[in-house]
Amino acid sequence: SWHVLCLALESSHRFAPEVWVGLFLIGISIVVFDVFRESTNFMPNRRSVALFSVIVMTASIVGFFLFFKLMKIRPNPRYFLSPMAIVAVSLDAVFGTRNSWRLLRVVIALLIVGLVLGPVWHTVHERQTNMDLIASRLEKSATREDMILVNPWYLGVSFRKYFNGDTPWMTLPLIEDHKIHRWDLIKEKMSSPNPDVIQPVLTRAAKTLQRGNRIWLVGEFYLPEEGRNPPKFPPAPYGPSGWDPWPYVYSWQTQTAFYIKSHATESEQFFLSINGPVSELERISLEVVK
Fold this sequence. Notes:
There is one protein chain. The chain contains ten helices and five strands, in the order ααααααβαβααβαββ. It has 290 residues and is an alpha/beta fold.
């Protein structure tokens, strides 16, 4: 979790983790050395505000990390936005309780804005996805007899938005609703006692290849390590990581990639021309097998 937090903070500036940790420690130090020493630095009736803010800030951080530890869920950088907001508001309240620091907190805020301005400017000009380009290519190249397979499953939301062709498509695993991210349906797949969760996809892939048609692979389809079979796990939460979906996503992906590529005779990777950077969260690859 700490590693993911650092990645989230470093996306705005390489020294952002140090800045946040430093401000957090300063805020706690103010309360420890001033509140409990009955210091006169505080404005009237603000002592309880500082103490409350530090308690909320600390409890939120501890509770946040404890939640992911107990649930065995791998955190995503965006999950840290909520605790970061709580810490920011709490620190602002703490710094605002000191007579001599009220102006300093404004200066600190301006300095932080100056530090992150460059990375933020770069990010707002970054493509958030290349799915629109992939969908456009498939509309021109894929036929009704072909098959489009999208992995991971959550990319189906973007694909549904951009793809207007006639080629049948599905996600891995097969789920029926792609209007929003249906984690509840993935939970059902993970906890299913049926070991052949991806069998409908493999059956459709086999028929497509047997008829001499193509399968367009949108997203990640990595083969298992050489000499190893694709991993298979017991139903969640009795698998390797509780309710963490990513081991199951990897298992479904490697099983499917192994099956399709061992039954195909040709494959081709497509490299789309893109002007400018694309976000790593949705920088998608395209491959066709036949």
